[in-house]
Amino acid sequence: MKQLSARGILKCHMMFLIIGGISLALPGRAIGNEWRATHGVDSQQLLKFISDASKAGMRPEFVQGFDAGDSAQFAAIAVKDGREWKLSHALDAKAFQQAFDRFTRQQYRLACVSGYRDGVRVCFTGIWVKDQRPLIAWRARHGIPAADYQDVFDESVKNNFMPVHVQGLTTPVGEVEFSALFQPVEVQPVQATSWIARHNLSATDYQEIFDLQKEMRPVSASAYPTKDGTRFTLVMIKDQTSFIARHGLSSDDYQKFFDTAVADDFRPTCISGYLEDGTLRYAAIFIKDRMPKTRPATNHPVSGRRIPQLSPLDRIMLSFMRDRSIPAGTLSVSRNGGIPFSRGYGWSDDARRHTLSPDASFRIASLTKPMTAACIYKLEQEGKLHRSDSAFGYLGKGILADSGVDARFRDITIQHLLEHQGGFDRDKSGDPMFNSLEVSKDLSVPPPARPDDIVRWMIGRPLDFTPGTQTHYSNFGYCVLGRIIEKVSGMKYVDYLREHVMLPLNAPTVRVASTLAEFREKDEPIYYDPGKAPSVFAADRTERVPLPYGGFCIESMDSHGGLLASAPDLVKFLNQYWIDGRPRGPNESKSHLFFGSLPGTHTCFVQRTDGVVWAVLFNQRADSSNLDYNVIQEQIDAALDEVDWP
């Protein structure tokens, strides 16, 4: 059994099927959260399923082909989410690569790929979805020989990608090949705090992982015959979504399982068929979001000056929030330095008596990191530090003097921390910023653990890799940067940020957020999340509390994800600094995108090459619709592409 752990090719409202090289246009586009599924169908039945789903306003989300003996059979899932799509079906490797290249140029991204044996042929079927702007690099591979798969995986992991879909197949000559999709770790919803991937699993190994990984949820699985028996691939993430999974089911047993699962409000996300001793069997994954719709968010009030030319943005925001039952959100858009559009949607209070202001302050999660980077560049301009300096050398004499300290800590530079190359991999050793109770217990300090406590705790642990050799998204690295800013400036992190970066921009709302609801700002909305956890505060150690209000200590996250800010102030920042923290120069033109996410928080800001920047903030990141939250970036950018600016 091979263990693959780390971050696991593509960027790619009309809909098309490419069938053996023939294009067929399909009508229809709709918004909603309906789904339908099929299994054990042949190629023509698959195409009819997709055509019927498209006419009902749905798109294919998942397709997997498998060897059923004389010919291939398929399983498929269709959903109604309003995204544009294309599908290539029954292509050989060369034709599939040509389709891949063509659709990528049209800004479609491969979202599902299946390699399968159809008689004496190896074929590929893929689903592409529309990305309105090519800001996110995805990776895809098909037809990877088994001997090369580990190298492909390791190279993707080294570059901070994680697998989201892996399928194995056995060719007509008995060789095993893999198809796989990888995405940047920062694109994965943050509730997926860790993940694992495996391939070449026996049925016993496959079941053992489910038995051991009680807090992990499968997102991709496939089964394929080999000379050594049936083998499985598996990708799992750590989040709070309820799921059920089965394997080794006959066709009749799978149908019974399907009917029972659907009756319990589960829906399929992955269906894999495979031959075992001449019998067709199925492995499947079903999910049910645990977020109840207890606060349906409909008929949102809207605040702020209405701009007729930008009214499509209002429609997008209201539809997006209604479909996901989001109570509160703000959107600000700046063009050439001005802010022509700033709107609030929904309510600032739980009783829904007070309309949310466009200037309302929200937790911004990881949108904090570009501001921390800007402070580092500012201090370098002032001659107070250099990015090539040893990072931990700024934190006090003797901090690395203990003989048990990993010697590589001395090699970590400030630049390494800025670029997530400091030697910290949360998928291997966990994220200390969310381990407050463990840190407090180990150090015998009162909870919640403070940033200096967390730094001291981490120095006592070995690094996960040699600094500068890998890239792994690190909240802790930015926690250290915050402490460096304090040591060098002689000021609290947030005070230096406000005085030297934000106040010169007339952006006064930035400050450290408060964990407990009773201390939230007057204009700050309530945050919603289905999860609960033990409180990180000493007085409440035995109590399970809502995740946004005691499941973590946001004050200790100050320099990586603990700030509060308004959307207008964020676009002011984006007008003066690039998202990597560098000051913007005259006539520079770049595209940048950054997401932030915490329980109860989903945020995004974007810099475009046309001089437009925008920021959107929501008080929720999960709900029972199972709809994608990151798609808001594509929808807003698509609307801005069409604006006739006032």
Overview of this protein structure:
Strand 28 and strand 29 form a beta hairpin. With 646 residues, the protein is an alpha+beta fold. The protein is built from 16 helices and 29 strands. It is globular. The N terminus is likely disordered. The strands form eight sheets. The protein has a six-stranded antiparallel beta sheet with strand order 19-21-20-29-28-27, sandwiched between helices. Strands 3-2-7-9-8 form a five-stranded mixed beta sheet, with helices on both faces. The protein folds into two domains: 287 residues, no CATH class; 239 residues, Beta-lactamase (3-Layer(aba) Sandwich), CATH 3.40.710.10.
Which secondary structure elements does this structure contain, and how are they paired or packed?
Elements: E1 2-4, E2 15-19, E3 22-26, E4 35-41, H1 43-55, E5 59-67, E6 72-79, E7 85-91, H2 93-105, E8 108-118, E9 121-130, E10 139-145, H3 146-158, E11 161-170, E12 176-184, E13 195-201, H4 203-212, E14 216-226, E15 229-238, E16 242-250, H5 251-263, E17 267-276, E18 279-288, E19 302-303, H6 311-324, E20 328-335, E21 338-346, E22 361-363, H7 368-381, H8 414-418, H9 426-429, H10 436-443, H11 451-459, H12 475-489, H13 493-502, E23 511-512, E24 532-534, E25 544-546, H14 558-561, E26 563-566, H15 567-576, E27 592-598, E28 601-607, E29 612-618, H16 631-641
Parallel strand pairs: 2-7
Antiparallel strand pairs: 1-13, 2-3, 4-6, 5-6, 7-9, 8-9, 10-12, 11-12, 13-15, 14-15, 16-18, 17-18, 19-21, 20-21, 20-29, 22-26, 23-26, 24-25, 27-28, 28-29
Helix pairs in contact: 6-16, 7-12, 7-13, 11-12
